[in-house]
């Protein structure tokens, strides 16, 4: 399948994003095991068992991630094996990037993942996320701290804008659309 919406210069960045944020066990495939590992890294079963608030948070994460995983499989699992490989994911991203170029919005099913990821973090105020909180969120995605901080400074215009979910969503849109090499939006993945 041709990927007319993904510039060749973005293939490496998108491959790194797949490997670091989705393929948690580095087996070249994304499956439910990867999502379970992501949930465990955000709120462990042990922590959830000791704290009612964390138990609710974990349950919500599981629900959101299950929905996202099955939605991802529905649109991207071309061979219906219950896994998403890099080629299948790039095909999905081609469609998502095409939608971003046309309408500047993510498909609803994909936006749900970003909301779940954002809300799974312990922010002092999710309407004004601090730089270190943002960096910690991205570090949990295996993005280095320096790249996270540079991205935060860029998207918030060095703190002039408050980082909330809307700005985070805008950041993710710009991440996927950006074609400029070594730009802070690339999170050091290029």
From TrEMBL:
GO terms for molecular function: calcium ion binding. InterPro entries: EF-hand-dom_pair (IPR011992), EF_Hand_1_Ca_BS (IPR018247), EF_hand_dom (IPR002048). Residues 9-45, 64-99 form the EF-hand domain. Keywords: Calcium. Gene3D superfamilies: EF-hand. The lineage of its organism: Eukaryota, Metazoa, Spiralia, Gnathifera, Rotifera. This is EF-hand domain-containing protein. The keyword Calcium applies.
